[in-house]
Protein 1
Amino acid sequence: MKLVKSLLLGSAAGLTVVAGAHAADLPIKKAVPVEYVRVCSTHGAGFFYIPGTDTCLRVSGRARFQATYLQAYARSGDLTGYQGLGRLNLDARTSTAYGTLRAFVRMDLSYGTGPFLASGTARLAGTGFPALGVDTFGRVTNGVNLDKAFIQFAGFTAGRAASFFDFYAHDLEFIGSSLGSDTSSTNLLAYTATFGQGFSATLSMEDPLLRKTPIYGSANGGATFTPFQVFQPGAGNFTPVLGTNAFGQPVIADYDVVQRIRMPDFVGALRYDAAWGSAQLSAAVHEINAANASQVRSFAGFSTVGAVAPRPTTEYGWAIQGGLKLNTPFIAPGDLLYLQGSYGEGATRYTGYNMWLGGYTNFSSLATGTTFGTSLVDAVVDPLSGKLDLSKSWTVSAAYLHYWTPEWRSAVFGSYGEMSYGKSSRANLGFVNQLGGFTTGPLPSPFAPGFAFTNQLRDTNQIVAGASLIWSPVRDLDIGLEGNYARLALQSGRVIDQNKAPGIGGAQVVNVVNGVPVVAGGGVLPTTSATDTFQIRMRVQRDF
């Protein structure tokens, strides 16, 4: 037994020596050094170096809940709306010999229900998608928006960014309500020259589609058209133009007035920034065009052989804007005042006259069930001359932010604007519509008794005003309320009250007695010259 035990112990010792020798011969695998995230102080707070690069990145975002109450009218539907919003920002910057190379991306995701928050403007602009189920269509919007995605380098800005035309852009409001230009995101290529002492100048080529408001179209196969057909080529958004056939007899040509994208909008801005605030003067020009005739129709049985009609010629809308921002720390730290004014022809989205009413539509009202709405178009085709008659609009606005304490602040804002159309083109449209058989259209003959009471292409003015109170108990957390009032009024005359006589237009009026329109059977129609509405909004917002 002793002999066996000795042999086993010797064998074990031998194996240990051999194993140790083999272990010593194996290569040792060393752990890769960990590269810790380093703070980047070159570009401000919140940046860190992306490991393995010399690029600094800042990640930020927002979470928001918002609720809205909308004033009720006899024909209105939902009274309240709710919205949840998520935002993610990525800001990457690299120092180069030519200055900072920057790339910025912002993504917004939202889900809203009810009036206003289920935005028709967002759907028309391609950033909102409606639910399709029973009792949800038109009342629910799931929003997906690439709000920003641009590169800045050596004075150039390329990508999706805020328009260089804009200045105030509703910085002090929960949702842009006051009149004034605010295209928060558009596709552009711009160059900014910095002259020192706070002066700079920018020339920008910008996406024209996001600034287009329709050309007025009066018929769709003999009936009125809807706002959602405005930007669909060939969808039947026609306007009639009077022409002649080969024998000199009158015929009617229907022109498709859906605008095409042929050239960018050109924007220029001069800006001054100083410790006391900022000032900016900006201007823009954009093309307004119409397509060829879609069809030619006989008038009074005349032949359409060799038909010739004046084709609407291209026109150029334009706008100018001046803005001033004043810091007023002598009242309270953080206080500031904005003043802004604009004027344009064929440039409704540059003056921002349709900011409350909604963009990308030919006609709108303050809210569902209000007493009347108004046309919102950049141009009208005069059917006798074939020329584009540009609309005219102007707006002025002011906004003031005041800190009562570091935790409590308020904003008050107000705006006024006017919009007008050519009188002759409006009358000629009614005349040619009647000749073309569009007797049920929105513009009856100017000789018809109801022509004076139609709400199409009427000169109007708007007042929008509001105020907010916001509590920030901790940094980057806002809890607040905002109230808004809006009023739309005719510059002169009256229209049929759509709240009391829904669906009745000027074509149904057969007589006017003592200045009051009358329908067949002797019924008297109610009329109005102004309408108003108000909203109350609540917001809880956390930025990080």
Protein 2
Amino acid sequence: MFGYLSAQHNTENRIEEILSRMTLRQKIGQMNQVNARKPDEKLYKQIRNGEVGSILNAEDPVLLNQLQKIAVEESSLGIPVVFARDVIHGFKTIFPIPLGQAASFNPEIVETGARIAAVEASENGVRWTFAPMMDISRDPRWGRIAESFGEDTYLSEEMAIAMVRGFQGEDLSQPSSIAACAKHFIGYGAVEGGRDYNISNIPERQLRNIYLPPFERSIKETGCATIMTSFNANDGVPPSASKFLLTDLLRDEWKFDGVVVSDWASVSIMVTQGFCDDRKNAALKAANAGMEMEMVSGCYTDYLEQLVKEGKVSEKTIDNAVRNILRLKYRLGLFEKPYTDLTSERKVYSEAHLRAAKQAAEESFVLLKNQNNILPLGNKVKNVAIIGPLADAPHDQMGTWCFDGEKEHTQTPLNALKKQFGENVNFIYEQTLAFSRDRDKSRFAQAIEAAKQSDVVLLFVGEESILSGEAHSLADLDLVGVQSELLEELSKAGKPIITIVMAGRPLTIAKEMAQSSAVLYAWHPGTMGGPAIADVLFGKSYPSGKLPVTFPRYVGQIPLYYNYERIGRPAKKNEVLLNDIPLEAKQSSLGNTSYYLDAGFDALFDFGYGLSYTTFEYSDLVLSKYTLTKDETLQVSVILKNTGSHEGCEVVQLYTADVAASASPLVKELKGFKRIILKPGEQKKVIFELPIEKLAFWNTQMEKVVEPGKFEIMIGGNSVDLLKSSFVVN
């Protein structure tokens, strides 16, 4: 401990020494992050003058070293720059999209994926990534749901912590570690209508209960190095200029000592938002709120020096920001090792990396339907039709936000199926549609003929990677193009259809579910998605994923999520529906409950849902105590048995519900999960430890408390089918 404190003290002394030699212009330069896709003499001069703190999107490691050489050897202070890049779910070896990784309910593979991404990115000189995105995402119309860990706070916490650990490693100063960035701070996943860059209106109590916990835990438990503010104005205030968020909460309450960076030009867009009358005013409000590094829009470099001279921004404010930026660079070891080693053997696409990406893909797949146990195929088939636009789409398979992924290295389902099983199975490939939005039906006849010649059809549908991610919100979540019509025509061939969906979000696929014998939701599975799909379909491995987000039947049901606040008149599910209303019915309220006349009562699939090739039975839910105090820990156990004929992995999920509280509680909340592998006939006692303090929530007085009273506890394989018991907290 003494050595750590001594090193920390030494770092702080070095920071103060550098700060004492800096001009105001150089200090502001450290707060400036520039885009360098096309570096020029202007950039070289800025670096030489000490006017750049961080550089985005410089792709060539040789160039990065050249730029770093200017900063370290040609500027007066020799302060290194930190090179940043969006490394979201892989650098070269692409893992499933984060939403797919969340479906694994396995933080270990998330951490492994981030570690691999850090190793590959740092080989290229990247030492800072803008991930993980830990926005709670309840609206699949929002394209960036693909980057999220879904709708649940606890699952998002666990996955976000794992990803931060993977990126940053055990020692951030090691050359293979990169700084993580918790984004978007805050409430971006709750933008109105699921439209990117829109507004949100989340009250503070809901912010603290639902949206902030992943950020707080990432800071306090993993030392997440940086935070990025979001584009949305929440309750009329853009986070990039929120003193409550950036100073009161982050610095004073959470004691965060890392760097706060704006999202792309989120300082300057405050003018467009009407929160500032010009860019100078935007610089003023952002700096005084605690925004330390401005991404690309240049308001700080243009106006901060003048604002300090006018007495509107204190130089102490600038100094505090620069301290945090210099501290990040020391923690990254950039003062000691500023250059990227270009001589070491590169690990991109190594066997170990590809193996981990394949495992992540397998564990992300969610089996939604398996009529008559048609899957796994095993040795049951000799002729298989492979049809659809996503069967051999190496670019789209990688998913959104893959700047450095290379489709030449993507292994697609078509190629993997032929390679792995082609000796024993005759595969008949008919792409039919060139891409997901294709509306050309001219090859439908060939697809139907291929289906007739086969024992089973593998239909690969979904959405291209560009249809999800930032700035790709949708109002309609049906399959695009004529993919649905293709499935309908294929169903007339009378052969079983296994539909594999590759997408960046939940899609409204109720009709397609009915027309398919089996449905496997594969998200966008990344580089090794093909071999993973092939092995799962033929039983060399098995699906174990669970949905991290609710699937609606209709877009009109959105927002639809499992952990909503209790309401006064919930549906009983026996109410009158649209087609049940008699003609000339007298005016009535049809039961006075909360539901849609035309959509019924339920989601298409609930949070936590996912089938296996086997079946599981839950029994003997036992609590260690039924009356506890607030400082105790409850032990909860259940017996899980594999009652089927295949080995399988079940994600056992623990939920709690506060029966009554000083503010309307949620109907249930995920509080734990475990992945349990069982052989046929095997059973195991699964034990959870639940500290009662984990039942705390922020009440209407903005106090985090555990209130005495009755609580329900539930365990099962999804958020609906649950064994239940209860206990009391005194």
Protein 3
Amino acid sequence: MRSPVLPLTWHLARSSGRRGLQSQLLAAGAAAVGSFLMLLMIAASLGAGARADHTTWRTPDAVPAKKATAIQATTVTHVRGEPVTVVNLAQLPGRAATSAPPGLDGFPKRGEVYVSPALADLLHKLPAGQLADRFPKTTFYGTIGAAGLASPDELVAVVGRASGDAAVSKAAGNQNYYDEDLTGRALVSGFSSTRPSVFTGTDQGTVLLGVVLLAMPVVVLASAAGRLGAARREQQLAALRLAGATPRQILGMTAVEAAGVGAAGALAGGLAYIALLPALAELPYGVGGWYPGQLWVGPAWFAAVVLAVTALITVSAVTTLRQVAVSPLGVAQQADPRRTRAIRMVLFVAVLLCIWISTGGDGQLKTRQMLVLLALFYGAFWLFGPWVVDRLGRIVARRARTPATLLAARRLSDDPRAVWRTVSGLVLVGFVAGFFSVSTLGSEGPSHRGQVAVITANAADARHAAAEARTKLRRAGVTATVTVTSEDAYDSLLGGVDGVIAQVSGGQERIDTAVTALTPLGSGRFPFTQEYVSASDDTVTARVTTVSTATLVLSFLVAAASAGLTAAANVLDRRRVYGLLRLAGAPLDVLDRARTRETVIPLAVLAGGTTAMGAFGAMQLNKAAGTTINSSGAVELVICLAVGMLTVLAAITGSRPLLRRVTAGAAQTAD
């Protein structure tokens, strides 16, 4: 016998009218947004890892001298404050030919210079005295292909040298702690290193942190989409259940309808992601924009996200019908207040204790452990939220002095899960705001702005180099004070290393000109500036700042969409209740104030708690990283909370015309 599930589902969908169509369109739109953002998050994470892999070849891994075929000396110089990675390569005489580095069509010969497209543009744009004169004079400039670059905006140069050149000598290697991860020299036989550049090594971990923090608001949005039209669906299916439909048929019809709507929306979001890949690749992160291929997640991830969003919406819709299957008469009469149990609080406290114990020790947490704890916290708070809403409703009901407050309290205690779904996105965003507002890593390292430093072999060479430096800077038109440092002078950019310090007067152009003018004095090393000294700390700080800003913006947008979607859905689902209240004489303003209070009350209590917990999590992260707390984050936090509250009010206000429309002609709609 043919199953009646599909025909009945199609019939109910067609007969639901304009109200049902509105719910389905809203659900599909929410599924599209959720699918798009999930694909974008996965793409950023996978792309960051791929970019890091494209920089590993620049880190020289030493091999025994007998097996070596070339010398590799990698260093970093800066122009206009941006890092330029320079790889010096020299073929050892009498050894086997060395394979070509990634992105090059051959191993560079002496005097050949290969540059990335972005660096080539910069070489043509800037005067030679600011950049080009740092490299050997040559008539051959090759281009580094995408295989050797992390980003189309990355500044990279590969210079062919003779094995006896100073640029690949031992003096060009690591000489002080500032050189860590920035300058290195080794005998090599190829380019098989697995250590990424300092400018890309932390990208993926930072992105993953943002992904975990953003994932829950996206899940909330998709879950809200699955529950759209829940009241309408419950009433229809309860009637069918009373007419003889089995629980399996009821759940089957719900699953089919939700899966169809969810799949259509998720696929639309996925197609939008594919169509926008070229535009998304232009968004800068770290070393610059992306190659579009780096942001393509592949067919497997694409299908997995579409299926996951569809499944999430389907499960969310099906779970609303538990009471329909068990007690259809109670649902039809709307006689079942949905209370919560105290076990939710017990589980929440247990999770907090687990997190406290895990983060309270002196040992540093790994990135994966931190992400697991964040996910665990989110899950626990999702259980705890409805319980708090339920208790707030009972407390407010006992102290209510106005009809609007009493109506709001009744709503809080009658269906705390529905109220929690309205505010959950913004409540959990409060955790993100609290976390990132104080987690911007600070650094208390030395600052020597305007200084250009040249390392020398000893104090005698430093004195000779100082005289040459004054002459070269004067010829270049740079005003600077040149001093000699020694091993006992730590209050300078060289930090106790023999060399020359030029305190340059003027802006960034003068500093770049000074670096170029002093390059011949470096015995194969580029002069360096404050950007070189603080590169590692600045890179981490910049990545965290970028991810935090993007996560906050996207989280607020998603939470606002979720709140607005749920507020509109609640009006549609409760139109019968609102109609009866209007017939009983309740003014529209009272109903509107009740809607506002049933949202603002739990939001104020719960968002305050999650914000404090987010700030605590940020303190633990800063402690593990050995960095200071961003004291200016308090202002940012206040702004975030204010924006969140205004977002809620805007979502409620946006559904006010819908409330007016569904309560018009209450005698006809409140049957």
Protein 4
Amino acid sequence: MESNDRTPRTRQSRHTRHTRQAPGARPGGLGGPDGPGGPGGRTGVTTAPATPATPTTPNTPATPAALAELVRQTRGPVLVPGDAGYDAERSGFQLAYRHRPDVIVGAECAGDVVAAVRFARAQGLPVAVQATGHGLSAATDGGLLISTRRMSGVRVDAAARTARAEAGVVWGQVVEAAAPYGLAPLNGSSPGVGVISYTLGGGVGVLARTYGFAADQVRSVDLVTADARQLHVTADSDPELFRALLGGGHGLGVVTAMEFGLVPVARLYGGQLVFGGERIDEALAAYLRWTGTVPDELTSSLALIAYPDLPQLPEPLRGRYLAQIRIAYTGSAEEGERLVAPLRAVGPRVSDELREMPYADSHTIHRDPSDPHAYDGDNALLSGLDAAALLRVAALTGPDAPTMCVLQLNHLGGAMAKRGGPEGAAGSVGHRDARFALRLLSPLPGAEAGEDLGAETGDDLGARMGDGLDTDGPGSGEASAEGPDAAALATVRALHAEALAAVAPWRIGRSVNFLFGSHGERPDAAEVARSVHDADEHRRLAGLKAHHDPENVFRFHPSGAAAADRSPAVGTAVHG
């Protein structure tokens, strides 16, 4: 959009927003007679195809009249650069990369999403989608951003053991809604992560070894397609599309709601065992041995964190290199105590927080950060691992590393290795046979990362820098820079590549959920895109992408790099 178009466009949008009232309009959410879609767009049903939109063309400024019509058709705000709220709306949890769209639609219902996609098609604008921005990996410069955070309706059917969540719902909402019934979702470790993007990527959560991927529990998906149609997708209505969405669904449309199964879990035995640097070698070796002995009811991970020597940190953490072993066990506390005995035998611990807890407290196991920050991360799915290789990775990423790096090793297997869901409709989650996921994440200074460390409390700093791996809250201010410092990013990427090279003999691919950063701009971007699935699955997903979005309207994700090998873009985190 040209600068000389912004003033009349913004003025018209504000004027129209102030004066119009949509007939029958009600706040977004569930429970109203019109359903979550509201007037002009209900979800939960398959509607007649929309009037064919003009095919996409190279980005062109929208006219004031077109923007005014978009405002008239939507409940939520329509924002352009210069509007109050524009910067807050485009910002998410990931501060290293932020969308800079020509137009933002703050969707309140599925009808708003339909109107936004129809407008984008008519104006030749590509579309990005964001809920929380945790998994933001490819920021739009221009185009249209659909912000779904206002779509926050959650409904639990205790008898059916299901939940229905709209596009902006975060896992903490679902955990809270399900807990009174003794039920739990297959959420990740952070309560602030969005349900939809996490699940479309597969979803490796707190109960993953016991109940599998979050995608395996999905019953139905409400989808707005690239030609602005609303589809209610199930294993019966469209088995190919349904399967593709569950593990490879980013870039196939905008998911406005999802229904998924809940599991009968009301409490856990879990928490952390934390060892100091002097026992890290022993702890790593013991953890690898131990993972070969535990039942599927126990899900765990290991994190290595070199805390900086800063006065804001609590004394037990300041300047220390620590190994944190995180435990979630669905069996009894007594059996849990027996199972963790080999880990406690490693020796004295900095802290031992293992306890019985209500499932609603499961987020305390990992203590993921709640404050937005800037970061970049890569990962490897592994068929196995030996202690020598893990120690090599620890040496590369530990206190002597050229930049801070948090290492996490997730124990996979169990129910994750079994294909299929509740109705036997296998999703497209890649590399289910992986035994471990090795994840690397580094803060990125110069992109609102680390600039305010002096003002943080010890707890805040420990959360941000210590537990900075999100498994799976918008920022509010204007970033000091758009994008990370190039030299800092190059240092981080080089460190991650060297560390992952140490596990090359076992490497079978990557996890969609743990790709953080602009990987679509890497020289090896096409390889990154292909690594998420095996070759046959990648080709199948590319074919479905070509069918459902032939003009690549939904292109802002790292696997958009697949275009480099002339495959349509398929792939990873857009929503976040």
